[in-house]
Amino acid sequence: MTKNAILMSAMAAMLVVGGCAKKAPKDLPPPPTCCGPSEGEGVRGDFLSKVLSDRIFFGFDQFNIDAEDMAVLQSQAAWLARNPGVRITLEGHADERGTRDYNIALGERRANSAKNYLATLGVDPGRMDVVSYGKERPAAVGSDEEAYAKNRRAVTVVIENP
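Request: output the structure for the sequence above.
Response:
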């Protein structure tokens, strides 16, 4: 084989491999619903029926807790006080604007803000985990302010007891 033939073969192989790279899906699938209780059953259902909401919302590039968020988190803290064996995960989310890394960090700040406020209300920090999904799990698909506002959130997820 000549040098040119080897070079052409290598370039063709790179094109084939590069052309097969997976692209991120435009829309993410909804979270699984097969394995957890629905809103009307179990600990999760009780939580959702007794608190104001399982989520709080934030302004653009913000992670501060406002008065409306405080009311929601106070209702969650009261429920958690009545259910001391329950653990929660606080999920932080962001809208699609900004880089992936920036939005992961922003989502973490949002989840930690909720966790810290719940801790000031007497919820043991050892019962709370934090995870950030950044912009990877939008609640609303779209590139307008209405969708952005729904995606800038922290969600409290009740972990079922084993």
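The chain is about 45% helix and 15% strand.
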